[in-house]
Write the structure tokens for this entry.
Amino acid sequence: MEHGQDTMTIVDENGNEHVCEVILTFESPDYGKSYVLYHVLGKEDDGSEEIEIHASAFIPNEDGEEDGELMPIEDDAEWAMVEETLNTFLAEEDEE
């Protein structure tokens, strides 16, 4: 995972690969992690304009480069920070 990347491929628990559109990447000095917000492309369209947004953390390896392994966000305070960042991003997008 690199900042500025438009798409990425994830593998689900069944070993199936899914291409995802990266919505936002950001770093949090408070948690010492980077985050990616994304949605899976090609899911069945139910006719609504809403998309399901997923969020994961990733931690740089010893060389400072992203290792590409996504980690779940398990802390409630961390989730609140991610949601606040997403809401700020979406509000700014609506203003444009």
